[in-house]
Amino acid sequence: MSSPYSGGGGPPVGEPGYAQGGATGYTPPPAQPSYGDTAGPMTDEGHPDVEGTSVGQLIGDVTRDLSTLMRQELELAKAELKAEASKATEELKAEAGKAGKGAGMLGGAGFAGYMVALFLSYALWWGLENVMDAGWAALIVAVLWGIVAAVLYSMGRKALKTVDLKQLKQLNPKPERTVETLQQVPGALKPN
Q1: How far is residue 26 from each of residues 1, 6, 154, measured CA to CA in Å?
Q2: Would you state the pLDDT for residue 63?
Q3: pLDDT at 167
């Protein structure tokens, strides 16, 4: 197998493809070309000299560059949306934790209160039956439970109002940087 370099079997120190201290001493050059560097000759006005280059090759170069630009913009949009989504998820988790805790406490208190209320209601009803008619005793117990229900409702509503979802309105699902750079594309395609 022959070396692609004539002479010493490898590139000189400091040239692309040479790695000091490596096992083979060779590192392949980067696979992606560096865009923005003009490899061809330039005219006096600072534009690339395209004389002698076919129209097909120029169109191919423009198509490749636009394709690369669109891929890069898509990756930027994905990164921006992912960052905003993770930010929204973290805020939602925090607020959902507060809401879940409040709702769980209300539910547990409701069930325990129901059991206590059921037996105390029967006891009160039967106790009042000794003093008055059974219908009036049941009505008094029902009114007392209506008052208890109103107090519990207002306390539960007050606890759930502390959940703050206003922070979610501050989130921006629009990839601002991508939109900004894509708006520059038509101007870049116009001749100066």
Answers
A1: 15, 15, 75
A2: 87
A3: 67
Closest CA to 9 of 23, 27, 22, 26: 26
What is the rounded radius of gyration, in angstroms, for the C-alpha atoms of the chain? Answer: 38
At a CB cut-off of 8 Å and minimum separation 6, what does 168 contact? 88, 91, 92, 95
CA distance 104 to 66: 55
Higher-scoring residue by pLDDT: 179, 87: 87
pLDDT per position as a tens digit, 12-59: 444 444 444 444 445 555 555 444 445 567 788 877 777 888 888 888
Question: What residues contact residue 141 under an 8 Å CB cut-off, 6+ apart?
Answer: 121, 124, 125, 128
Structure-block tokens of residue 112: 């325990």
Strand partners, 18: 26
Neighbours of 8 (CB within 10 A): 8
Give the residue-averaged pLDDT of 159-175: 72
Note the pTM of the prediction, 2 decimals: 0.35
Cα of 51 vs its chain's centroid, Å: 48
CA-based max dimension of the chain: 119
Number of helices (H), then strands (E), in the chain: 4, 0
Which pLDDT score, from 0 to 100, does residue 44 have? 81
- CB contact at 8 A, 38 and 46: no
Could you give the angle at the alpha carbon of 103 between the alpha carbons of 146 and 99, nearest 5°? 135
